[in-house]
Amino acid sequence: KLLQSKGFSPKEWIYLKCSSKLGWMNATVELELYFAEGDVCTSMESYSPRNELEALNSIVWLTDVSLSTCTHLHTNILQGLRLTILDLISDFGDKNGVNEVVKKNHSCDQEECLIESGESNGAMTQLKIAYIEGADQGAIARKDLKVGDVALEIPVSIIISEELLHETDMYGVLKEIDGISSETILLLWSMKEKYK
């Protein structure tokens, strides 16, 4: 149906097939149900931005797999389909940008302080904390990220771990407490460090 809406004639059918991933049949059937017309389901029952992106991304994935095994005759059609789907994803992103769903009236001061503390100790991030409509608190990109960009980099030296606690003066005292878990020791040490 998508090919027909983009001007391809019905005799140019190409079946996207893939057996390299378990559940590929379910993914294909879900795509067909999602984009199906008629009484299969009403548009509001199955529509959500997440479903839309997952469906479009699944088509790109199936197209990529099919491109790796198709005949030369079908290559141009599959490449055209792939570009069309990528355009749809881009248009969807433009229409449903993050700015519309980020709640402006929520403060994230404590989280921003944590990020600043991490950055002053060597962490690097391309993310910021925000309250997102329908998802509560989360992280969003500060700028457009490309595939392969590093969104968050934390040096091993600032990761709080049980091994780090063994090197502190507080560990000797805390390990004497009967039945105390390592998680509780980490929590107590973190609380002490916060007020240091």
Describe this structure in words.
This protein has 196 residues and is mainly alpha-helical. The chain has 3 domains: 2-96, no CATH class; 101-154, no CATH class; 160-196, no CATH class. It is 52% helix and 9% strand. The protein has helices at residues 2-5, 24-35, 43-46, 49-69, 72-95, 109-120, 162-166, 169-174, 182-194, and strands at residues 102-103, 124-125, 127-132, 136-141, 152-153. It has a 3-stranded antiparallel β-sheet with strand order 1-3-4, covered by helices on one side. A two-stranded antiparallel ribbon has the order 2-5. Helix 2 (24-35) crosses helix 4 (49-69) and helix 4 packs antiparallel against helix 5 (72-95). The chain is elongated and about 75 Å long. The termini are far apart. The model is unreliable at 36-43 (pLDDT under 50). InterPro entries: SET_dom_sf.
Strand residues, percent? 5-15%
Give me the secondary-structure category. mainly alpha
N to C succession of SSEs: HHHHHEHEEEEHHH
Basic shape: elongated
Computed Rg: 25 Å
Cα distance, first to last residue? Answer: 64 Å
Order of strands across the main sheet: 1-3-4
Helix content: 40-55%
Counting DSSP E segments of at least 2 residues, the number of strands comes to 5
Give the biggest beta sheet.
3 strands, antiparallel
Low-pLDDT regions: 36-43
Count of alpha/pi helices = 9
Number of domains: 3
Mean pLDDT: 73
